[in-house]
Amino acid sequence: MNLDFNTKELRIIAATGVLGSGFVETSFNRGLKRKPHLIGADAGSTDPGPYFLASGNQSFPEIAVKRDLRLMVLAARKLDIPLIIGSCGTAGGKPHLNLVKNILEQIKKEENLKFKTAIINAEQDKEYIINKYNNGKIKPLNPCPKFNLKTIENSIRIVGMMGAEPFIKALSEGADVILAGRSSDTAIFASLPVMLGFSEGLSWHAAKILECGAAAATQRKVPDCLMATIKKDCFIIEPLDPELKCTPQSVAAHSLYENADPYIILESKGAINLKNVKYEALDDRIVKVSGSEFIIADNYTVKLEGAELAGYQSIIIGSVRDPLIIKQIDEWLERLKSKVFDRVQDLYNKNFDNIEYSLIIHIYGKNGTMGKLEQLNLPISHELCLLFEITASTQNIATSIASITRHQALHLPIPEWSGLITAIACPYNPSYIDRGAQYRFNVNHVVEVDDPLEMFEIEYI
Amino acid sequence: MTKLYELTKLIRSKNAGPFQLTFDIFCNNKKNYEKVKKSKALSKKTIADIYNTPIDDVIFFECDDALAFKASIPRPVFQGDIGDPDNHGGQQYAPLMDIEIKDLD
After folding, report:
1. CB A93 within 8 Å of CB A122
2. Residues near A316 by Cβ (< 8 Å), separated by ≥ 6?
3. Mean pLDDT within A97-116
4. Is the peptide bond before A430 cis (omega within 30 degrees of 0)?
5. What mean pLDDT comes out for the span B93-104?
6. Inter-chain touch A438–B18, beta carbons under 8 Å
7. Where are the domains of chain B?
8. Which stretches of chain B sit within 8 Å of chain A by CB?
9. Mapping DSSP to helix (H, G, I), strand (E, B) and coil, where does residue A402 land?
């Protein structure tokens, strides 16, 4: 791979917003005709939930990931340019990285290709994190869960979010394809321009817009490609489907997406400062951006993500159509919880102190969607859907308590009716559904490091 | 009196990481953006009240380039944790839609 581009501009294609979500082949091919210097895609996010980090599974099906990756690999090899995939397998831990590595090896074999691949690990040894914690090098972000040695012990997996440096190292060591574990979305695309001496402000800002693919356009039809051309004093953003348009507003709007602060975007090395950015329309669909700055921080920090077991769950879906029950639903549910508590205490009498469980009921038709945030107290719907969620320390206990809950709920009386009632309508049998292990994210902290590479070993295959 | 959603092309909510919820309000043109800005109907306080969150926990921006307002609050339940009713944080914005915008002209 020859990285001696010696070019005044760097053309980068983000094939899609997340690997596995798809992109339009004609858009991609149009971009390839422009002779890009880099093809990349982000493959992960915390957005699908803690299940993926904990379980080792990825959120997109293998068939979809392979379809996207195959097209990208073929293109990159044909043009002899680097291909970078960050946050492999949704959560970017060891098993996630392995999933994508296996897919890549299938493609390599099927297409009879030869190339050098860098595999960059992001999953951290607990000993390392414990050591950092004991040396006071782990700092909280705001807001964050409680974090101490017990948190590290309870974690199923902790990953560090790599910055540009591991990518730059792999590129300089001749990697044609880079599969990385958990990465900063921007580092995936900023690494090559930064390595080649382009302005850090422009490189990181362009990367921020690239990483969601065609989402920076005014109206996206399907997930699709985006191209950034980075120059000395500006960069140009263009969607590769000729029917899509980027406008100054749509590009500016993109820095708001999934960020609390639209002007300062934190990275390991520092922060992207968007306060003085200018967005100009070059025509009705292409935007020129200038004025982006990068502020280097005093300390290099790596963001940590971790997941732990929250318990085992069983759920029941049951709906109510009787207006008399509906009008007293809060009180009815309080009585239900109390009945369940008494029954659990009775059955697990000897071990009751060890039986920790939670029974949460989501009331759809009232405040199911917003839960604690709902302030509306409207006249209630003609029907409600109740979602009972039982969480306990083992599946057996969760299932048992769910079964108890079902029976109590089914016949819990109201004063208006005499005789045995059936209060909920369950669409499934058994009416309780075991969900298995439930996880939670348990870290929102950064770790101060001396060497940006120390947490991210690179292996070549 | 106009409702906020009538002056916007998009109101949305999303996770900003697993621990924060962020709201974006994109006005449909500069005139309406200025109208909403001038009315002061959107502020840290309105968000704090609507979402029953301490005002010090609210982050609020006016984004002139994007013709947008942005507010963020800590998630009442961390993403995906027990009892979280909305894993993606995508359906928490409806109360913003009916905020009334006074016409001050």
Report:
1. yes
2. A386, A387, A388, A390, A402, A405, A406, A409, A426, A431, A432, A433
3. 98
4. yes
5. 93
6. no
7. 2-95
8. 14-20, 22, 24, 26, 50-52, 57, 59, 61, 63, 65-68, 70, 72, 74-88, 91-92, 94-95
9. helix
The shortest C-alpha distance from B18 to chain A (Å) reads 7
Residue A162 has pLDDT above 80, yes or no: yes
A395-413: pLDDT as tens digits: 999 999 999 999 999 999 9
- Inter-chain residue contact B68 with A253, CB threshold 8 Å: yes
Interchain pair B65, A441: CB under 8 A? no
pLDDT at A4: 65
Q: Has residue A349 got a pLDDT over 80? A: no
Q: Which two tokens stand for residue A212?
A: 């969601």
The size of the A-B interface in CB pairs under 8 A is: 124
- How far off is chain A from B15, nearest CA to CA, in Å? 6
Contacts (Cβ under 8 Å, ≥6 apart) of B93: B11, B12, B13, B23
Compute the Cα dihedral for A163, A166, A167, A169 and give only its sign. positive
Rounded to two decimals, the pTM is 0.94
pLDDT tens digits, A179-231: 999 999 999 999 999 999 999 999 999 999 999 999 999 998 999 999 999 99
3-class DSSP state of A420 = coil
Core vs surface per residue A401-429: b (16+ CB within 10 A) or e: bbbbbbebbbebeeeeeeeebebbbbeee
Mean pLDDT, residues B36-64: 96
Could you check whether the bond before residue A143 is cis, i.e. omega within 30 degrees of 0? Answer: yes
Instruction: Please enumerate in sequence order all residues whose Cβ is within 8 A of that of A62, keeping only pairs 6 or more positions apart, or say none.
Output: A99, A103
Question: CA nearest A15: which of A163, A212, A190, A260?
Answer: A212
CB–CB contact A391 B82 (8 Å): yes
> Which of A141, A255, A310 is closest, CB to CB, to B82?
A310
- CB contacts, 8 Å: A313 with chain B: 82
CA dihedral A332, A338, A341, A347 (to 10 degrees): -90
